[in-house]
Amino acid sequence: MESAPEQRGRDNRHGHAPGSDGDVVRVVVVGAGFAGLEAAKAIARGDVRAEVTLIDRQVYSTFQPLLYQVATGGLNPGDVTYPVRGLAVQLGFRFRWGAVAAIDRDAQEVVLADGGRVGYDHLVLAAGVAANHFGVRGAAEHSLAMYTRAQSLDLRDGLMTRLERIAADEREGATVVVVGGGPTGVEMAGTLAELRNDALPVAYPEIARAQVDVVLVEMGEELLAPFHPALRRYTLAQLRRRGVEVRLRTSIREVGPDHVLLDGGERLRADITIWAAGVGAAPEVAGWGLPQGRGGRITVCPDLRVVGEDRIFAIGDLAIGVDDPLPQLAQPAIQGGRHVAAQIAALEQSRPTAPFRYTDKGIMATIGRRAAVVELPSGLRLRGTIAWVAWVALHVATLLGNRNRVATLLNLSWRYLAHPGGSGMIVGDVQPRSEDGPTRDATPWDATPPDGDAA
Ligand SMILES: Cc1cc2nc3c(=O)[nH]c(=O)nc-3n(C[C@H](O)[C@H](O)[C@H](O)COP(=O)(O)OP(=O)(O)OC[C@H]3O[C@@H](n4cnc5c(N)ncnc54)[C@H](O)[C@@H]3O)c2cc1C
């Protein structure tokens, strides 16, 4: 399937994979998230004889909706990630580890960062998104995001380091600023407040509650904009009850190593800044030479083919419809994956393609123990304990793999049921040498030794 460098371009004719009998269609899927996995599975199991190669820069698929639990010591990183090779064997596709750097459309090959090339007859791009800092000064350098397993571990270790510093020196304190009042920001702020309120008194008796502040900053009028106003009000009240300082109609002008500067000029202390304000395509997507719309997302036609392309599809968070921008959620990604499989079959059987129709299954967000909001397309709205139980059940059920489901259920039960009001935190690494504030990519706490401490 993968061409050696000297074979590049050798195998680009439709339906001719090396070693195949000539009827096999080469489909390359980029990204092993919700969208890419569903596409790879559906194509491999469909009626077209296809040789499917799934490419991802990680060797696992990440269940992003529970990353905030990893970041706050509720789950282990392995609970929310699943090895793609296991799935490949099970579901009948190949896996290639690698980061896509470019697309050679003339040769019909995907070019990987390690120089490898993978030929395709149909290409499905499902590489998801990264944090979008909207050009806010210092945000990329001094805030942490939560889109990957590594980022959530950075965050967990950063939090633990900060707590150990406060425990060691009672003059210290910590203010965590969460930027963005969408579901990710709300979940993060709610869980941090819960940790501060419940876990800290048990695990860190030296730390007074007043030494740790959680601030949620949202530029809009309300939190959780896509939800019904009653659920938005409930969310705001719940967060405030848990001691989160919620600042609405507030924009961030700059992020520094120890502060955020608000638009009005006010400077807020921020020992840790968590960026949950928006997403966009990763910078490398610009090098793929495809049309990009809002947030750098790749623009697609109604059938999910990239605008101007016959053989390239884009799905999931990375794609934006020219007429209909779908929400960046798991369901549009999964349904989009199934749709492209059907469209590839249609193209192979010389049938016309069909437009993608999204079936809305509702939205939900959690605020913390016994508090969540659920809104169904029928208009049914739930909140409180029942919504929270529904949220937990759905998230555990949709994880990949029984082992991950059992481990997650056990760890969440430990956090919320077995140890209510207890610590229950999974321990991270504490690296107390650095005096620097957090940065986005590296674990910053060990980056620069304080003056006079250099090796
Ligand atoms: C913290 C958080 C909480 C969320 N909570 C919810 C929720 O409760 N409900 C919900 O419906 N949605 C939720 N979402 C959104 C949901 O996770 C996304 O909509 C969904 O993951 C999108 O799926 P995807 O397949 O498009 O992308 P992803 O799941 O992001 O997968 C993209 C894959 O592409 C790979 N990749 C990226 N670049 C490259 C490259 N250059 N080369 C090779 N591989 C690459 C990545 O490693 C990754 O595996 C949440 C998201 C976050 C971050």
Structure keywords:
455 residues, disordered N terminus
What class, by secondary structure content?
alpha/beta
**Unreliable parts:** 1-21, 439-455
Envelope shape: globular
In terms of DSSP E residues, the strand content is 15-25%
Largest sheet data: 5 strands, parallel
Strand order of the largest sheet: 6-3-2-10-21
Spatial gap, N to C terminus:
48 Å
Overview in brief:
The protein is an alpha/beta fold and 455 residues long.
Can you give a write-up of this model?
The protein has 455 residues and is of the alpha/beta class. The chain is built from ten helices and 25 strands. It has helices at 34-45, 67-71, 84-91, 139-142, 149-168, 183-203, 229-241, 330-348, 385-398, 402-418, and strands at 2-3, 25-30, 50-56, 60-62, 81-83, 94-97, 100-104, 109-112, 117-119, 122-125, 130-131, 174-179, 212-217, 245-247, 252-255, 259-262, 267-269, 272-275, 279-280, 298-300, 312-314, 319-321, 363-368, 371-375, 381-383. The strands form eight sheets. A five-stranded parallel β-sheet has the order 6-3-2-10-21, covered by helices on one side. A four-stranded antiparallel β-sheet has the order 1-9-8-7, with no helix packed on it. Strands 14-13-12-18 form a four-stranded parallel β-sheet. Helix 1 runs parallel beside helix 8 (330-348). The longest helix is centred in the middle third of the chain and has 21 residues, at 183-203. It is globular, with a radius of gyration of 23 Å. The N and C termini lie far apart (48 Å). It binds flavin-adenine dinucleotide. Residues 30-36, 55-58, 61-62, 64-65, 67-68, 99-100, 126-128, 146-147, 183-184, 282, 284, 316-318, 328-331, 333 line the site of flavin-adenine dinucleotide (FAD). Flavin-adenine dinucleotide binds next to helix 1, strand 3, strand 4, helix 2 and helix 6.
